[in-house]
Amino acid sequence: MPTYTAPTKDMQFVLHDVLNIAGSDIPGYADLEPDFTSAILEEAGKISAEVLQPLNAVGDAEGCALENGVVRTPQGFKEAFEQVKAGGWPGLDMPEEFGGQNMPYVLNTAVGEMFSAANQAFTMYQGLTHGAASAILAHGSDEQKHTYLPKMVSCDWTGTMNLTEPHCGTDLGLMRTKAEPQDDGSYKLTGQKIFISSGEHDMAENIIHLVLAKIPGGPEGIKGVSLFIVPKFLVKEDGSLGARNGVSCGKIEEKIGIHGNSTCVMNYDGATGYLLGQQHKGMRAMFTMMNEARLAVGMQGLAQAEVAFQNALDYAKDRLQGRDVTGVKNPDGPADPLIVHPDVRRNLMDQKSFTEGARAFTLWGAMLIDQAHRAGDKDADGLISLLTPVIKGFLTDQGYDMTVQAQQVYGGHGYIEEWGMSQFTRDARIAMIYEGANGVQALDLVGRKLAQDGGKHVMAFFDLVKSYIAETKGQDADFDRDFLDPLKAASKDLQAAGMYFMAEGMKNPNNALAGSYDFMHMFGHVCLGYMWARMGKAAREALDGGTGDPEFYATKLATGRYYMARQLPATALHLARIQSGAEPVMALEAANF
Ligand SMILES: Cc1cc2nc3c(=O)[nH]c(=O)nc-3n(C[C@H](O)[C@H](O)[C@H](O)COP(=O)(O)OP(=O)(O)OC[C@H]3O[C@@H](n4cnc5c(N)ncnc54)[C@H](O)[C@@H]3O)c2cc1C
Known about the structure:
Bound molecules: flavin-adenine dinucleotide
Largest sheet: 7 strands, mixed
Number of strands: 11
């Protein structure tokens, strides 16, 4: 069965050699010295490998079951959840006031990657709670914060996010769930939500549902949506649990993957709810945590790619098939290992160069979130808003592709369940859909984020890449040729696509929208190219300075060169597609498909 080893050395490299977190002036970062982060990452890696990963296949095989209105999670989940809680992991980046440890989000992101790689379905119970708690933290009254947060930060109570209804997922303006005001200031919620992750289960004393609903008489469409706190058990004034609320799980969905996470139909039958934030501003409240939530989903793509890659690599070294055409490598055996074959190498290098680049990208994104929240930096906030759909869409698409490639290394053994590789593809698939389907991420990027604040943030991104190239160029001709020149070319392609949208999108918006998916991928490649240039530079400096492990840094440079040579040129294809405009995409009438 698959195994998982947390990539702590690689994370330390990104955090310290590349991002230099301990040298940053973001509040809370000065404490993040290498020894300190190493201790936390090692501990998180241990629980991931020893507690969460062994339950991954159990969760997949057993799934969740609805019995008398209660969802039973797979065997061992409850005990593991207690261990995660006892370690204080759910509150790592939450305020101390509510029982958290107030660590920066960047550290939480590194730990989150490990937990997700080890067991995505399990980690979602905690992840959804984090999202719901962040919403209460940002928009709740003092009373709401003190009532719910201490229990949610510890994960004694878990949380959910209820947006989707049977007839509306992307277009939430069509929502029908109603919230009727009551004399005591509360609301009665009636309606049905579907696909609610962690909606009902047996691992927590209480479940705090955050529910979007419409107050009758409010504005039409999306402008009339408000956000409510709806506890499974009402909470008494002294904080103890009271009566069962009118919310129940009607069904759990059978699905492709993440079987260990309960995906529930939730019925609200006059359930008592409390307004969170302002009336009719529910979407705004949701959007304040969107960057974090979407980054966390992008990270799931990376996490599944990483664990799948680790196992494919072991298999490629172990499985004997065929001979190396340039000379036998395993003369004592009947054949050479798969890893000698160039096409298997290509496959493994795709995976390795993606996961390491994606890790740097998510950790940089998390650092921007810290800079925005902890240092109140508006430019960082603008930049991460721009990059969020790229992180979510590109990393989950590519992450899924990498799990398929990892499966391919196993040949037929990847297709059967015995080796456990199919779970990675099945689990990775959902991240392309939830938290806004990837087509909608592309729409958000091109339709909203590019033009936000007069295009200031996309210009800032281009400036960042340009100044990085200018500052770094001229020190090492090989590095310039292998890293900086390809980055410059890719960045130019991205700018050309932006210019095309500006010119042609004005004439017909479909010229921009038909190219939006390509643009999201192109942007993702440029971001990973930028990350690889930064990682390559850090590795080269370490090699030149004679510090650390030379093999590690030389490997980093070779992996970066691969990405620059073999992946980054994809931007030219994306640009050609974009510049063909809407015509080839929209040529057929719906009836002629
Ligand atoms: C396992 C699982 C867990 C989930 N967990 C949760 C949860 O915890 N809470 C919650 O509220 N929801 C949850 N969801 C729901 C999920 O977020 C939605 O399924 C998703 O947002 C898409 O909505 P939809 O399924 O209605 O698809 P639709 O909105 O019908 O979209 C269908 C397709 O059309 C595309 N599309 C739609 N509109 C446009 C447009 N304007 N332009 C271009 N393309 C468009 C989309 O990209 C998509 O590919 C979950 C779903 C699943 C399967």
